[in-house]
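Researcher: Here's my situation. A collaborator sent me these components and asked whether they could plausibly form a single complex. I don't have experimental data yet, so a predicted model of the whole assembly would be a useful starting point for our discussion.
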Amino acid sequence: MSLTNEQIQNKLVEKFGEAVTNFTEPYGMLTFEAPKELNLKVLQFLFDDETLKFRFLTDLQAVHYPNDKGRELAVVYHLHNLVDNVRIRFKVFTDINKPDVYTATQLYATANWMERETYDFFGVNFVGHPNLKRILNVDEMDYFPLRKEFPLEDQTRIDKDDEMFGRGGSVN
Amino acid sequence: MSDVQNILLPEGSIEKKTITLNVGPTHPATHGVFQNIMEMDGERVMSSESTVGYIHRAFEKLAERRSLYQVTPITDRLNYCSSPINNIGWHLTCEKLLGIETPKRVDYLRVILMELARIADHLICNSILGVDAGAFSGFVYLMEYRELIYEIYEEICGSRLTTNIGRIGGFERNFTPAAWEKLERFLKEYPKALEEFENLFTRNRIFVDRTVGCGPISAERALNYGFTGPNLRAAGVDYDVRVHSPYSSYQDFDFIVPVGTTGDTYDRFLVRNVEMWQSLSIIEQAYQKIQNIKGAEAEVYHANVPAYYLPEKKDVYTSMEALIWHFKIIMGEIEMPKGEVYHSVEGANGELGFYFISDGGRTPYRLHFRRPCFIYYQAFEELVKGSMLSDAILVMSSLNLIAGELDA
């Protein structure tokens, strides 16, 4: 019998109690978050549990929310249970001043380059990663380009300001 | 070999017994710009370190300043051997976020294009594998049909390689009679060429000896490395996004998902060949289904979503209303729901995913491309360690590495 989002949620709450929070289902995909110290425990539990079987890491990346103080960077894992064909999304948030998150490379070989890419663009420091260096950008680069404080265009331009479109506020 | 050194080198000047060999960044065998620094002991690869990023173009950053339609040309440049899959995958992601349902006929037209793109991609991969193994003729047999596929694209969207095909909700115009004619010609002629190609390779003693056992990977390792697509199926896992999470009405089609056993170069080759046959069958089924649609629906080529679908060009030039909508849609001034969505399609070399976070603004807040090629390329070292250099070249070729997709 296939696995429902509710069953997954119950399993997780049973195991981690209050630590796993913010369960939502945007477009049908169960999404939740956990403290960053627990990320490996949650991933390991999802991997090992005989009913959950989330053993395929589809994707790993980060998102930058500059206005969310203390939890500016979100590391997002997309996991897939190939047997029951269920996907979930798991997030951990970290302070941008101390962006240390445990690496998932021991569990998933594929996390190696994904984490390198995330480090490259967001500066998330994956603790325990065997080879954490830049992958797509040049080694000499001294900033993390996908963070929101790096504008793509000249900020003195006014013709593309959102003000023009009735939304107000400045451009990211 | 005598102990006497026959080159007049100072004593102790030879530091190591292995040779460092650079395969790439520009090397005929890499078929793209990426580098492998190999440590060689004679002909054997002791270790290999891959360097990617030579054509990194910051697509994810660019996408944060572009409205939905302006992102489509970016997706062209991911896996440029099968651009329509990327374009349609992106449009499907937008449709999922915006909650747009497409008519069946649109789905089938999309299926035809995506399967043509899959064939174009696989035929290049397999025939170039032949070239890398020293058999040039198979490539010449099939290349003609990629040209024909590109002509079909051209009839539909006006361009060939970076197609920028379609719109949110469907296509910018209906398939022209010339496009159907070319498609019929393709369906008639391609099977013969593919059969000839298979006859040249599948039971060819030299080719089989070269590829069997070359760069194998177990199903377990392949899953752990995040393999998807033909490379994973060659290892024996029947995971196909078209079957697992059907999009664009793939559930209406009858096709098999070929799997291999050992995950070596030969299995990857065979899986791709069978997939081409399956794609042909899917295109035929879609063609029949479209023929069976009668009445008013037989001319439908886009969903009725004027808020997201660009108005026709002739209206834009003549009517004020259409011009306003054209401007609004291009500038991204449309109703964008807040939310995050992950959508994936079965790209030619694996699961191509789009993780799209919208904050309700004009552009994506964050857009991440799950590029199959980038993810499985990291297994390359494990695949070639201890093998001969010439085998490493074949493994690289059979993985179907596309530099555009590696680097995003």
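Model: Some features of this prediction you could bring to your collaborator: Residues 167-172 of chain A have pLDDT under 50 and may be disordered. Chain A has three helices and seven strands.
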